[in-house]
Fold Probable GTP-binding protein EngB.
Amino acid sequence: MLIKSAEFVCSNTHVDKLPDPTLPEYAFIGRSNVGKSSLINALTNKKGLAKTSQKPGKTQLINHFIINDTWYLVDLPGYGYAQTSKKNRSEWEKFIRKYLLSRENLQCIFVLIDSRLEPQKIDLDFCCWLGEKGLPFMLIFTKADKQSIVKSDQNMAKFKRALLKWFEEVPTRFLTSSEEKVGLDPILEKIDAINLDFMVPPVS
Ligand code: GTP
Ligand code: MG
């Protein structure tokens, strides 16, 4: 898919203020600092579209971007940010989980995983929660440029094995580097294919 336009639409903490759910939507979620915002910028080839930072906890809101005037990419705050207070963490839980559970045009949740790390409980727990709720998700392993392909493959295989304890099938997986713009086309192709099947949800 060719990205012809990518524009910021709005930032929200309230699910009832989100754009009308008339276009297919894809959300990026994962641990703080895993590279969600960087990946949005790499996919759209627009540096600075989503705000990135070396420090975790940069993205705090539900940020909508409209792509080619036909679908939404959503940048979400990260989970597992140690510096956040308990109260903030439970606020995150509430509004992100509410968003994920109630957004009827949400076609797929892309869960980002740091390819340098062994499977982390927090990521596995989150995937299990998505599975329990029946929410469609795929895995995007990030920061592949930071180590050898062998190491990335090993960590991806370990993650797959860990998920197979709970899931019968492992979700689709992608290995990417936003820094080196690697592994991006397969994600856009997948989104393109899902967009073709999108039907406007009935008004509730
Ligand atoms: P929060 O908004 O805090 O949850 O973080 P985030 O997941 O949006 O991460 P962000 O995109 O802000 O990136 C965090 C840091 O990782 C930044 O310093 C990025 O430059 C770096 N980073 C992101 N992706 C890559 C990558 O593919 N390769 C390398 N080397 N660094 C990356
Ligand atoms: Mg971010």
In short: The two ends are 32 Å apart (CA to CA). The first strand starts at residue 6 and ends at 12. The mean pLDDT is 92. Strands lie at 6-12, 25-30, 62-67, 71-75, 106-114, 137-142, 173-175.
